[in-house]
Amino acid sequence: PDPGKQAYNIAWCGWGYEQDFTRAQMLGTIPKLKEFGIKWATLDYRWFNDFGDWDPRQDTFPGDTIKQLAEAGFQSIELCSPVGYADSGFAGVGKYTGTELRRILGDHGLTCVSSHFGIEELRKDQEGRIAWAKDVGLTQMIVPSLDGPLHPTMDDVKRAAEEYNRIGERAARAGIQQGLHNERFELTMVDGQRTYDLLFKFLDARYVKFQFQVSTISQGYHAARYFTKYPGRFISMHVQGWSAKTRKIVPVGQGTLDWKEIFAAAKIGGIKNYFVEMDLPMMRASVPYLRKLRV
User: Fold this and answer.
1) Averaged over 22-43, what is the pLDDT?
2) What one-character-per-residue DSSP string does 87-125 give?
3) Which of 219, 294, 220 is nearest to 264 (CA)?
4) Smallest Cα–Cα separation from 41: which of 80, 3, 15, 6?
5) How far apart are CA 27 and CA 37, in angstroms?
6) For a tag on the chain, would you pick the N or C end, based on fewer CB atoms within 10 A?
7) What global pTM score does this model have?
């Protein structure tokens, strides 16, 4: 089915790993994003104690952060489960019930339909986590990895897939789409075969969708090839340009990736959401190309 024009919106993920950003600098990007026509953004200012995504400040979430995002004109955010990500700094989010979080977000004109969950918390209490997800208003529950061994056997892969099929089936009965990103375990090899490919064979297409990380081209995973090889099995992709010559991420439209091929294949793959993951300068350099791209 045609996902519609909204599925092709560009999203800017703005956080700094190598430099400090002031509040004024972060919020100062909003007018430029609007000028570019970007409607979705993830801003990481004063939510986290340090660079990256893994140590959120409990004194600024959800209050300051949500207020700033809402005032900037954004409408939706993505959460990390306070159970599965408790050791990563999200435990404090658990002081709110799912219903309370939904109300807090709603009071600021924000919604949340997606959250990351650790596979272990779904193993222990999927029913409870689904209940929390429904209270928040989620429709998607994503795990970054099945967390299998880094040197798996075929039986390891089969067991992981069988388990996630059961998780996906239970989620589907509750009206939730279960999703799987490709990290760590998914990028391993088994008997000369890619674990990722084996998972397409062993995971049930009725219950599990895939999210593709375009930058895994650095490890030989070609987006267009996977989209055409496994039609209808994907739900979203993370977009980065890539230069095979320098082996570095570059703005979309530069480098060596054939984006017309990738976006044409994405339709076959079933992609409904495209998220551009880059810093602002690379985003600025990418947007003109993406806006002109016709597939």
Assistant:
1) 68
2) GGTTGGGGGS-HHHHHHHHHHTT-EEEEEE--HHHHHHH
3) 294
4) 15
5) 16
6) N
7) 0.70
